[in-house]
Design brief:
Elements lengths: L2 H17 L3 H8 L4 H14 L3 E6 L2 E6 L6 E4 L2 E4 L5 H17 L2 H20 L15 H24 L4 H11 L3 H6 L1 H8 L2
Parallel strand pairs: 2-4
Antiparallel strand pairs: 1-2, 3-4
This protein binds zinc ion.
């Protein structure tokens, strides 16, 4: 990832970490500056609705498809994911919804379109040939930023849940581990907290 990409991601994360904690601000931006992506996301949700079940992740809608795949994508405030998608994919997609709030129509040009092309390129040139891509998936600013912003949100939700489940020893120990925290540690425990993330 180039230096300018890191700087831009740092700039975004400072705003994203505020927006993810304020649902009114989140939807205010999504229904004004980000309205194009928001409308398109809801249209896609309506079309795919018969093929899955809707959950929420920090007030954004997540359509989990009945299909046993692990890929996902997001448009506007809607994330769509295969049935096998894990929590890290869900919060990554949520991170993209935060990008829609901040970048508005620019998200199409700066994130959605390049992300789609890059995904297809990696599928065709590497995975379908049984090869491993040279660069990691998050080695580009918009993917790295989506994961980072999603992870910040995940920890924020975990913090709320910690309060809610404060009386449970299991939760206490679990969240202490989460907050020690290194991303890998939290990742190891993601299955334990997954049920709590969906309301
Ligand atoms: Zn992504």
């Amino acid at each position: 990832m180039k230096k300018s990409g890191i700087k831009f991601s740092d700039f975004l994360i400072s705003i994203e970490s505020v927006i993810c904690k304020h649902v009114v601000l989140y939807y205010l931006l999504q229904f004004t500056w980000g309205i194009l992506g928001t409308i398109l996301g809801y249209i896609i949700l309506l079309i795919l609705l018969p093929f899955g079940k809707v959950y929420t992740f920090n007030h954004a809608l997540v359509l989990k498809l009945n299909k046993n795949t692990s890929w996902g994508f997001s448009v506007g405030t809607v994330a769509v994911a295969g049935n096998n998608a894990d929590l890290s994919l869900i919060y990554h997609e949520y991170g993209h919804t935060l990008q829609n709030a901040i970048l508005g129509p620019l998200a199409f040009v700066l994130v959605m379109f390049p992300s789609f092309i890059r995904y297809q390129y990696r599928e065709l040139h590497y995975y379908k040939k049984g090869l491993k891509p040279i660069k990691k998936y998050d080695d580009i600013w918009f993917e790295f930023n989506a994961t980072h912003a999603g992870f910040v949100t995940f920890l924020y939700l975990a913090c709320i849940k910690k309060r809610k489940y404060a009386k449970s020893n299991k939760a206490g120990i679990l969240f202490d581990v989460l907050f020690i925290n290194e991303k890998s540690l939290a990742y190891d425990y993601k299955d334990c907290v997954e049920d709590w993330m969906f309301e």
